[in-house]
Design goal:
Structural class: mainly alpha
Number of strands: 2
Strand order of the largest sheet: 1-2
Shape: elongated
Order of helices and strands: HHEEH
Largest sheet: 2 strands, antiparallel
Helix content: 25-40%
Strand content: 5-15%
């Protein structure tokens, strides 16, 4: 789980105050939570999905059985 950095969230929203960022996120219907520090937490994956990007998924290692 990777969150946007504070700088990335400021760039995305155009807002500096966490309360203004949260209002912007709600208006844009971007899922987020408010952390214990009072700042919005946004999963990078949700922003990429919203912007039409692709999210790289990690594949589990494949076992190769000896024959």
């Amino acid at each position: 789980m990777v969150f946007l950095s504070e700088a990335e969230l400021q760039t995305l929203s155009g807002k500096q105050k966490p309360s203004a960022q949260a209002r912007w996120l709600r208006a844009e219907k971007i899922p987020h939570m408010i952390g214990g520090d009072g700042k919005p937490k946004v999963l990078r994956e949700k922003v990429l999905e919203r912007l039409g990007g692709t999210v790289a998924t990690e594949q589990a290692p494949q076992l190769q059985w000896a024959s």
